[in-house]
Amino acid sequence: MSMTTSEITGKSMLQVLRGHGGVVALVAILLFNMAFTPNFFQLQTLFVNISQVATIAIVAMGMTLVIATGGIDLSVGAIMALAGALAPLIFLSEFGTAYPVLGVALAIALPLLVALACGLFNGIMVAKLNVQPIIATLILFISGRGVAQVLTNGNLQTFSNPQFSYLGTGKILGLPFQGWLAVAIAVVLYLVISRTTFGRYVLAIGGNERAARLSGGPVARVKIGVYMICGALAGLAGLIVVAINSASDAARNGSLMELDAIAAAVVGGALLQGGRAPIFGAILGAVIIQLVKYTLLANGVEDEVALIAKAGIILVAVYVQQARKE
Amino acid sequence: MLNSDAFDLRKYMQRHPQSVAVWIALLALILFGVLRYDNFGGSYNFGSFLNYNSMFIVIALGMCFVIITGGIDLSVGSVAAFSSVIAAYLSPYGIEVALPLAVLVGMSFGAFNAFCIIALRIPPFIATLATMLGAKGAALVISGASTVAVDWGSNFTNMGMNKALGLFPWSIVLVTVVGIALWIVLEMTSLGRTILAIGGGEDASKLMGLKVNRAKAFVYIISGGCAGLAGVILASGFGAGQPLEGVAWELSAIAAVVVGGTLLTGGLGSIPATVAGALLLGLVFNILNFENGRGTISFSAYWQMVIRGMFLFAVILFQTRMTKGQKSKGASA
Asked: Keywords in UniProt for this one (chain A) (predicted)?
């Protein structure tokens, strides 16, 4: 079979996209905004976008680790809702109002523990019971948000609690606190992946699970660990969203976040078959996803059409990544 | 390639041990309901139960085909919502126009899924997730994000509101016909054999010269068509196209298929057991509603999601134990 020239140029264009697709997309979006979006280069715009990017990026980094093992976690949005529903319940309770400092500390620690436990559940289902990740995480995807709504009776919980809200509204050196948090998490995860045996096993499992198991690796433990990290990060993101809004809405918190996170991870260079964990890529992916959302919104595109655009981005990103393996 | 064993009851029971358990559970629950509640066996509950659940049964049928090939279709809920809007717009022309066109619309979403999965090699859950978003967005765009009233003057609402023999809603009659047709396809045709073979091992099926891509395209198009039909039933039964409906329908369908004993890893599945699984899930909620009515328990709507998730969990646990037993014994089969 001979190749025509158009096929060859098509192939090499695909290769360029594969290597630097994220950066190319980012530059394109920025150029578009410079030309068409009013008031794009203002501090206010930057703050709004950083605080939104941070939550997507934090979840996407956990998702990247899960995807690196060849898995997927659909329950992140539900875990966000659950953690986000628990926090106000704790610091608004009698105990929480009697001991405000301890109340806020518990309102952060307990939801994170619950999120960690959700990740443990997912991990055991996948690693010990050998249930496919999509189905295993579907259980919490369904019931996690249900539990959050049962706990709050489906009500919107509003509050005024400056200490807790620092998670979402605080600033360090003039930039949003959660932006710094996301960067710190990225650095830690990057070191974990590149410098520890745990990290090496994460990549090995995704590369070839059988080989990793036959060479005596703690495959089940590493997989469970990855889902726990993903769960805890989703819980943290849920707390941040609640802190930003000074309100917790179990029906909306983290809704469709699994899609944003998967899209960000894939745009950032994660392979769905596993074996790669581009942590900083996940942040780049999150920035792109958020900028696309912002661009559509700022230019008056309806939410419904934005959904279709997001679907298109996911398909293109996965297609471009997918061809890499062949 | 006719397979005469397919409808032999004893062989069927041997091949699908879990489905026997599902049928027994179903009968036990019906008996429980009839004995415990006054109106449970009445024609009103009977009719509305079947009418409402016909949507979930038909979606589960399509999902069953997809899962047998080892795939998944997460787009069914949004596709049903989109089709319900299309059906509502077409309702003035009567059911004979609205039904086939809305099903065709569902099938074209299925064809898009098939294209992404087969030609672009995008994993099924990503492709159908994207279609889920796209179809939802499209449904909101064409409906202006609100329900679309159907034309009550035409015969469109007959299907969801009237009953055959005064007992069986037309929707369930139609779904039964679809179910029997799909059962025949799966058990008695070479296409059905290919679908089962793909789930057993896609590469091996290709090497054996089976038309794998054609069969895969078929299952996703059928799943889309089933979702389209569910959309028509939705619009017809509630008198409106519902762009916001369909949320978490894919989960109900997957749960029904799994309850029916179809292996999530593909390669094994049964149409009647899937129907039984869908009925069992529906019946659990029907009975919970009756309990709510008696005031013994009070479950908010939010509990439904929790219970659905726990149900899926229980079934998966059950299935992992079953398959462990089967693997050791059925490796040669």
From this structure: Cell membrane, Membrane, Transmembrane, Transmembrane helix
